[in-house]
Write a structure and sequence with these properties.
By secondary structure, the chain is mostly helical. The protein contains 2 helices and no strands.
Length: 55
């Protein structure tokens, strides 16, 4: 929940420019990520392999 995250960041006292806030779930943001991925794919920079993921 974006409102909860915003409140938590303010509670922690982080110095953050709230005028530059963005949500990665908004199409205006992730369409650029998708375009970049497709550019990488078209240029052979994307591959798939089996590997451990630390997350």
């Amino acid at each position: 929940n974006i409102a909860t995250m915003r409140r938590q960041l303010k509670t922690m006292g982080l110095s953050y420019d709230w005028d530059r806030e963005l949500a990665t779930c908004e199409p205006g943001y992730y369409r650029h990520e998708q375009k970049m991925f497709l550019d990488f794919l078209a240029n052979g920079l994307v591959y798939r392999k089996e590997s451990w993921v630390n997350w």
